[in-house]
TrEMBL record, chain A:
Domain Extradiol ring-cleavage dioxygenase class III enzyme subunit B, residue spans: 8-272
Signal peptide range: none
UniProt-listed SUPFAM superfamilies: LigB-like (SSF53213)
UniProt source species: Marinobacterium nitratireducens
Protein's name according to its UniProt entry: Protocatechuate 4,5-dioxygenase subunit beta
From TrEMBL, chain B:
Pfam families, alphabetized: LigA (PF07746)
Annotated source species: Marinobacterium nitratireducens
Extradiol ring-cleavage dioxygenase LigAB LigA subunit domain segment(s): 27-111
Matching InterPro entries: LigA_sf, Xdiol_dOase_LigA
This protein's name: Extradiol ring-cleavage dioxygenase LigAB LigA subunit domain-containing protein
Amino acid sequence: MAKVIGGITTSHIPAIGVAIDKGLEDTPYYRDLFATYPPIREWLNEEKPDIAVLFYNDHGLEMWLDKKPTFAIGCAPQYENADEGWGIKPIPPLTGETELSWHIVNHLIENDFDPTVCQDIKVDHGATVPMTLLWPNHNYQGIKVIPVAINCERHPMPKPSRSYAFGKAIGDAIRCWDQDAKVVLLGTGGLSHQLDGPRAGILNAEFDNYCMDKLVSDPQELCKFSNVELIEKGGAQMVELAMWLAMRGALGEGVPEERLRNYVSPISNTGVGVQLLIPQD
Amino acid sequence: MTDYKMRPVEGTIHFDGAQATKGFNFNKMCFSFNNEEARQAFLADPEAYMERFKLSEEFKQALRDKDLNKLLELGGSIYYMAKLAGIFGWNMQVIGGMQSGRTTEEFQAYLESQGRGKTTNG
């Protein structure tokens, strides 16, 4: 049977992709952030997961406002990246895992989640920045990827509790897949930030750390928040906690081991959290 | 009727159905900026480009004025406005300052004042 071996939370802000392109990893501004990743890469190298289920939100590359799914799952053999309009270099395509994608879709619909099913989508920085951070120099040929998109762009967005439940259903699907495969979960985005309006620039390090604490020990506490409460506490884009909650739901109900945590703020306009969680079974 | 109205948050316009309806043409124009030829076409003749996407006079004027808060108020989405900002070479700190009434340096200092020193590593 397939096994979920761990969950990683990471930011996906474009500025990180630009910093990688420009080789700024060891500058004072970025050093603390990039120092987080080598131990996670070592863990990935040791564990060698076969598949990554990657929770992200599309920021207007593939899923624009004309047809914007609330939840969407990639079922494609390959995912290309493309020009997003402001300067990160597109990266080589990610390889998909159609058999597990379809298994997840079938399991979800049997269990009352009805996502949009995507056989041909491009993925944006929400997916590519995490892949580049975790497998630098485009060295991700050894891992297959299943992108799962959650609408964080236009209200109404799924309630935090619903993103958690959606992730939980995906985790159940992975664990009942009758193939021997090691699966790592990636919850991307966040934490506190607001890009728009007179309130742009708000950060909340205390709340970010609270969220990281509860993500490990008691994610149900985070599921009690409404999206507007998240916006009040951590800015309009704090709603990206959705992907962290989906990842945590998929990880399973027991309290995982928190192998690693880092928090750096600000990077660009964002409080950046990174965690490596190992399920205890 | 189901209560789904989001309570107001100061300094923030929730990008909801009503805003998305008002701003559709503008956001559609900004979505086109994923393409380099489109960016060049806009830069070559912004008025013609805005006309092509049937922008209202209010939207056109806000864009001429580079009034980002007005664009948000009219129905702009920050995700698409970021693509517009890219054309002008404005990053997130530049537009953060423009929207919050700060210079870029002041905006960066504001970010730093809430963040640095709160780094944890472990």
